Structures are given as C-alpha cells and as structure tokens.
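Hey,
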Amino acid sequence: MTKSSSLFLQFFKKKSYWVHTIILIQFISVIFGALFFFLKNETGDVIGGSDPTVINRSLLALTKAFIISFPFANIVYLLISIWQNEKINCSQTWRLTAISDSKFYLDNSLSSFISYFYLLFLNLLEITILFLMTFVCSKGIRKAFNYSFLNFIKDMASWNWEYLFNWALLVILFGLSCYLIVSFLNFSSRSLIDFLPGIKSTIAVNFIRFLLIIIISWLLYKIINSIGPIVDIYNGVASAADINLRRVILEYFGFDLIILLVNTFIFSKFVEAKQNN
C-alpha cells in the first residue's frame, strides 16, 4: 500500500509545476508593468520626499507591479488548482495507486489547498524582497518607513489579535469550501449520470445540478449573510463582534466538515475513474 504522505508529496510536486509556471508568467508580466510605471514616472515621488535615481525608481516600479499582480495571480491559480484537483480525482492512472479512495481524495484535496498557500507564500516573499531592496536603496522610503513603523508599533498594542486571527481562520475555511463545493457538484452529478436509472437525459441531469447549486448557494448565503452584522458591530465593541465571528466560524467549519464527509463517501462508493484523464 502507498503511504498517504508519499501520495500527498507526489500530488504537491505535480501542482507545484503550475505554481512555478504562474510565478514565471507573473514575473514576466511584472517586468513589463514596471517598465510602464517607470516610463510614466508614477513612482518617482514617494512618501517622505522624491527619489529620482533610476535604481530606486525601478525597484519602486517593480514593487508596485508585483502588488497589483498579486490578487490576479492568486485568483488564476485558484481556478487552475480546482480544475486540476477534479481532473486527478477522475484520473484512471492516478486511481490505480494502491491506497484507499478516501485517503486518495483527502490527499488530493489537501495538496491543492496547500499548493495555493505555497503560491501565496512565494508572492509575499517576492514583495518582501523587493521592498527590502527598495528600503536599502531609497532614503525617502527609509524616512517614510521609520515614521510609519513607530506609529505602527504603537497601534499594535490596541489591536484585537483574536479578532484578526478569527478572520484569517474564516478566510481559510472559505478557501477550503471552494474546493469542496466544486467536488460535491462534480461527484454528485457524475453519480447521477453513471448509476441512477432514468437520469440519463441531459435536461434531467442539468436540472438536478441546478437544484444542487441552489441548495449550496442558499447555505453559503445564510453563512455569508451572518458576516455582515459582524462588520457593522465592530466599531469599538470588540466583544460583540468576537462572539458573532466565532459563531460564523463554527457554522462554516460545520459546513465544510459535512461537505467533506459527503464528498468522501460519494467518491469512495460511486465515482469511477475515466480513461485519459
């Protein structure tokens, strides 16, 4: 039997290829974007004074371009990783691995989720390196940063760290739900097509898929709708916001856990691999 950790590493290596490809494409795009900002002279002035040197302006242009490209790269990879996750789930070659279906599904889904954070880490690392290079080379940036950093340290004492941690946890749960929901829609519709009698027509299958999407959307709406009052409440009354946020986290965690268990069951019992996937 194949170890779960070994299969996870194989999945992660395969998905890291797309991470590195997106990073390369992002880097090339950033070079052209930085050239545009440089020629437009939009980065010549910085907080704390002007910095007209070519090196400093180039580093500032690169940093700005990377920050702008950051959300686009992550959204693109999220879509690619979801597609790749479902492709592997139905791959006849990968399903020949000597491991239980439940472990196979969990390893595949977890590796997709971790690879997304791997891309996030690489993006943050690149932005940090560029900022540090700019900080070293630019006197204006150093002056602005020193002033802002002192105020930043003072403000940190008044931060509600538990509230920030809860929001970070909620974002993680939301990202995980993206993979789980797509898998659920894929598995359930495939099961209906392959195994249930009388549900072979395209119209019937699409109608059932539509009903499943409505049910999932309604559940997500109920959860997301409960986030709104948290933002409204959090105007200095941290305790009330924390209580509501904890409740939303529990709801989202329960939602993800239920979908995960359902997906694991359907995948193990009904989802068959397809050739040439």
